[in-house]
Prior knowledge:
The protein contains three helices and ten strands. By secondary structure, the chain is of the alpha+beta class. A five-stranded antiparallel sheet has the order 3-4-5-2-6, covered by helices on one side. It starts with a strand and ends with a helix.
Amino acid sequence: HELVLVAAGKGDIGALFERDPRHSPYDRPQRTLVLCYFAGASNKEGYGVSFNVVPGVGEYFVMPGLTTTGTCDMGLLEAIPGGPMDYWDDIESPAQHLEKFKEALNQFFPWEHGYVRDKGLTDDLGVAVGRLVPAVRKPVGTLPSGSHVMGLGDVVMLNDPLTGQGSNHAAK
Length: 172
């Protein structure tokens, strides 16, 4: 093929694209990302994407969503590594994840806690914890065969999720 595009930022395929140290100042994650899909739509008036910040602690995004089980609120906590909300390493079950998530909202974002206080998860897959190192990579990768491929999205620019922009910046 004359053009092969790669748009997967995770896994071994991302290693085909060399990190650009000139545009990648970080060598460790800038946030611990904690996701929870709460069953049922929010009762917030005029609800869209909501963003909250507590300096020194982290951020909380919440937005409406639709899953295979119906409507939901997608909550994303972004804990500053080593900060007071970064306590997600020992979670062993979706139920424990949900409980800790609600505790974090109650402690750090109490004005948001009331919307999910009595909600459960959409299903046991409605949780996630992760960390990523923001990086800019060179846009052309080389396959083992010597052929070249072009990167898009997270392959080329993996952002700290603070802005909620993700690979949209790379597309621009």
